């Protein structure tokens, strides 16, 4: 896929919304390109849209999204200050994990977003995001550290929703993302 002629984030997101590069396009209601300022100091990357995201076309608007909003607030950040997206832009059936082939098909969009946003910190929320960008997994060992100059691995909000004991660490990671570095 050649995205070199696409120069602004609005055009990129328009292309994502009509994309049929992988099978996830056939089951989606709406693609979820992501939202936030461009350029952005902080970029948050999750795994994939869920049911409410698929219906609205907006990232992290379900229960995990509400938890993310609260964690951002507790970390002294506003949602409007960060750009939020995910590794794949269309919802996998029954919220299964995205397949390697789907992640690979969607990766040029994520790369193009990273280039356009030029964030100081990229928060990789969960193993799927860590694997897609760093080629590494293992949140317990990776989280809370700045890796590869600007990547910070943390929990996925859905994991924090399942285990509220992770909330303090999640907030602390988001605080770290807000700097100073
Ligand atoms: S997940 Fe990505 S590559 Fe697959 S159809 Fe959606 S936008 Fe295209």
Estimated helix fraction: 40-55%
Oligomer kind: single chain
At the first level of CATH, the class is: Alpha Beta
Secondary-structure element series: HHEHHEHEHHEEHH
Strand-residue proportion: 5-15%
CATH architecture: 3-Layer(aba) Sandwich
- Major β-sheet, in short? 5 strands, mixed
Could you say what the CATH topology is called?
Uracil-DNA Glycosylase, subunit E
Mean pLDDT: 96
- The low-confidence runs, each spanning 5 or more residues with pLDDT under 50, are none
What would your notes on this structure say?
The chain is α/β, with parallel strands linked by helices and 181 residues long. The chain has one domain: Uracil-DNA Glycosylase, subunit E. It has 9 helices and 5 strands. Strands 2-1-3-5-4 form a 5-stranded mixed β-sheet, with helices on both faces. Strand 4 and strand 5 (151-154) form a beta hairpin. The protein starts with 8 loop residues before the first helix and ends with a helix. The relative contact order is 0.18. The mean pLDDT is 96. The structure holds iron/sulfur cluster.
Please write out the topology.
Blueprint: H1 9-17, H2 24-27, E1 42-46, H3 51-56, H4 63-74, E2 82-86, H5 100-117, E3 121-125, H6 127-134, H7 139-142, E4 146-147, E5 151-154, H8 157-162, H9 167-177
Residues 16, 19-22, 24-25, 31, 88-90, 102, 105-106 line the site of iron/sulfur cluster.
């Amino acid at each position: 896929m050649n995205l070199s002629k696409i120069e602004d984030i609005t055009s990129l997101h328009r292309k994502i919304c009509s994309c049929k590069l992988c099978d996830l396009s056939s089951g989606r209601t709406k693609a979820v390109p992501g939202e936030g300022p461009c350029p952005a100091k902080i970029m948050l990357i999750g795994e994939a849209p869920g049911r409410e995201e698929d219906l609205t076309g907006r990232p992290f608007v379900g229960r995990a999204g509400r938890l993310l909003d609260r964690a951002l607030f507790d970390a002294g950040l506003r949602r409007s200050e960060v750009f939020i997206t995910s590794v794949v832009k269309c919802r996998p059936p029954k919220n299964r994990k995205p397949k390697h082939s789907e992640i690979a098909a969607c990766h040029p969009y994520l790369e193009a977003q990273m280039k356009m946003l030029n964030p100081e910190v990229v928060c990789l929320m969960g193993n799927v995001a860590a694997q897609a960008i760093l080629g590494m997994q293992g949140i317990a060992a990776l989280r809370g550290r700045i890796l590869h100059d600007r990547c910070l691995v943390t929990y996925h909000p859905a994991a924090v929703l399942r285990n509220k004991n992770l909330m303090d660490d999640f907030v602390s990671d988001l605080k770290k993302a807000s700097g100073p570095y």
